[in-house]
Amino acid sequence: MDPLYEALLYCNIPSVAERSLEGHAPHHFKLVSVHVFIRHGDRYPLYVIPKTKRPEIDCTLVANRKPYHPKLEAFVSHMSKGSGASFESPLHFLPLYPNHPLCEMGELTQTGVVQHLQNGQLLRDIYLKKHKLLPNDWSADQLYLETTGKSRTLQSGLALLYGFLPDFDWKKIYFRHQPSALFCSGNCYCPVRNQYLEKEQRRQYLLRLKNSQLERAYGEMAKIVDIPTKQLRAANPVDSMLCHFCHNVSFPCTRNGCIGMEHFKVIKTHQIEDERERREKKLYLGYALLGAHPILNQTISRMQRAAEGRKEEIFALYSAHDVTLSPLLSALGLTEARFPRFAARLIFELWQDREKPSEHSVRILYNGVDVTFHTSFCQDHHKRSPKPMCPLENLVRFVKRDMFVALGSSSTNYYDACHREGF
Predict the structure, then answer these.
(1) Where is the signal peptide, in residue numbers (predicted)?
(2) Which of 35, 40, 78, 263 is catalytic?
(3) I want to staple 398 with a disulfide (CB 3.0 to 4.6 A). Which of 65, 157, 332, 377 is the partner?
């Protein structure tokens, strides 16, 4: 793939219309519950390229500036009334929308807010207007909302929620705080997962060492900003360069020259190669299977309760990061899925067959594309069944048993897989 085209996909400029296959099912199927995992929207960089001027991007929300959304002003107005809302600590200390004339590090931009207002509106049109997932008088216990403790994830979750439920009643909203980017709640201690991650990071390091073009690009950039190459690497310049690229801001210059598009292309090309090798070597898959298990286990429990007819938590929203979605995609076997761009969405739908009410099926969608039959737990099912979805039992069996089988261990539960000796 062309590295610049890949970078454009990553930016996901909101004016680009996107096909969406959410909510598609034969007429005799009833939508029972929906589970949404998002990456936060477009943000200001987390790192600064040393000795260069920070990109000047305005993080206030302005109606006459592109990109725009018809609900933008109403969103700001509604957020300003939410200061008394209940959020799990420490979320109540965070601002509910971005508001700095010069963005702070990692702050959500107007682009990021618009991306998730759009996501929310899209899901509203499909799940509420078409499928009536929630009644008009929906109650607080029908939603499950969770976010990490970063302003960009809370604000992205609120923007999507506002697009989904415009002018929602603040008294019905409760965001839970998740300290871990893996959303592993009380099941985060997993030594074997960390060992997989260490081996994966070693693989990344060795691949980087082999790439003389990448080495040269970093060397040239380090000379331009007059610091050692090692220090430039530690400053993760691609994060800042992506911001320049996505917001059409010139790359930084010093009296020694300019960091340019050719440097950016070399780094992006290497990232694409790294993704390819990551899939082949499978170390990341081991990390992902253990990293994603707690949140997948929580999701199937919620689905099973909904399948039994329970009406609580039928719409779940997790506002998260690329390091949340990547392990989920990998664990599900979605090897062709692109790296989670800003405002990426991964959705699990649970459906009931009205003709056979005891039968429930799932669909998995990534950025509006139906990827159900690309998952490792449902790859072959469509060859045996005309239904455009997968039995819920397949997903349950995958999470309860097959994820551990895929690790190549004799473990049959999460604790044993995390603590097995001799890995």
Answers:
(1) none
(2) 40
(3) 377
